[in-house]
Specification:
The structure is a single chain. With 286 residues, the chain is α/β, with parallel strands linked by helices. It folds into three domains: 126 residues, Glutaredoxin; 48 residues, no CATH class; 82 residues, Alpha Horseshoe (Serine Threonine Protein Phosphatase 5, Tetratricopeptide repeat), CATH 1.25.40. Helices cover 56% and strands 9% of the residues. It has a five-stranded mixed β-sheet with strand order 1-3-2-4-5, with helices on both faces. Strand 2, helix 2 and strand 3 form a beta-alpha-beta unit. The longest helix has 17 residues. The termini are far apart. The N terminus is likely disordered.
């Protein structure tokens, strides 16, 4: 088992300036030295992933990243180990890991180093990275893949959908998105539930007949597009709304465009019908 290449090659990390007095609380993680890197941490990586972060008291972002990793390590209860490398006191180790920026992260899995971080990330983003590290290690026979953890609001929404209570499901997804605005699964769930709400109890045949008789009625045409999508008629649904976007302008055009984008979101983006309709939408708008 050996250290990464270029162990002795110096890397200039002097741009951070002189160290400030250390008045902070103890930082999380095993403190890495040249000695325990070889004797303790590399062997440990044969049983679980060892996540190492190069940091400095002179970099507030690196301190925050290390603290966030400490919280995640505690929450995962021994599924992986966190190690910290203070570049001001352990410059040779940082050089061995080829750190050229702070924060800089490397994970050791089975004695092999894999860089995984070269900039500060939020705790949510770090959680996603750690989950990927655990999955990668599990594929190599080290540790276990992270268990899928559902959100309580998502559990509530799915239970409500099973009961046909779409209003409760919608409210649950909205609460989840208020807490996690970038959760794509919640966005998809909310869009699906809102489609169910719009089409619940609707007589599809009657709606389609009304759409034929009232080709310029925006609300009826959008409702018909909903019914068609629910029935699997994607192209007619897209073409119906595209026709309105071409002839409308202002707020009415934006209303129909937003509905069309919602329908796109409910279909595989690689579906040729979606690709074709997106191109048509771009032509209609620009």
């Amino acid at each position: 088992m050996s250290l990464p290449p270029n162990f002795s090659r110096a890397v200039d990390l002097s741009s951070l300036g002189k160290p400030a007095p250390d008045t902070s609380l103890p930082m999380p993680g095993i403190v890495v030295t040249a000695e325990n890197l070889q004797s303790k941490l590399l062997p440990l990586s044969n049983t679980l992933p060892v996540v190492m972060l190069c940091w400095s008291q002179r970099s507030a972002e690196s301190v925050a990243t290390l603290q966030a990793l400490g919280k995640l390590e505690a929450a995962d209860q021994g599924k992986w180990a966190l190690a910290s490398i203070d570049i001001d006191t352990q410059a040779p180790v940082a050089q061995a890991l080829q750190a050229r920026t702070i924060p800089y992260g490397v994970v050791f899995i089975g004695g092999q180093a894999v860089p995984f971080l070269e900039q500060a990330l939020s705790e949510t983003q770090l959680r996603e990275v750690i989950n990927k590290i655990l999955a990668l290690a599990a594929k190599q026979g080290i540790g276990e893949e992270p268990a899928e953890q559902s959100e309580p609001e998502e559990d509530e929404a799915l239970a409500a959908i099973d009961q046909g209570d779409y209003a409760t499901a919608e409210a649950a997804y909205k609460r989840l998105l208020a807490r996690k605005p970038s959760d794509n699964f919640a966005k998809l769930g909310l869009t699906q539930v809102q489609l169910l709400i719009r089409t619940e109890g609707v007589d599809g045949k009657q709606v389609m007949e009304s759409a034929v008789k009232n080709p310029d009625d925006i609300s009826i045409q959008m409702q018909c597009a909903d019914v068609e999508l629910m029935s699997g008629y994607l192209e007619p649904a897209f073409e119906r709304l595209l026709r309105l976007i071409v002839i409308l302008d202002g707020q009415e055009q934006m209303l129909v465009k937003d509905r069309l984008l919602e329908l796109f979101f409910l279909v595989d983006p690689a579906d040729p019908r979606v690709i074709k309709a997106r191109a048509a939408l771009a032509n209609a708008l620009f």
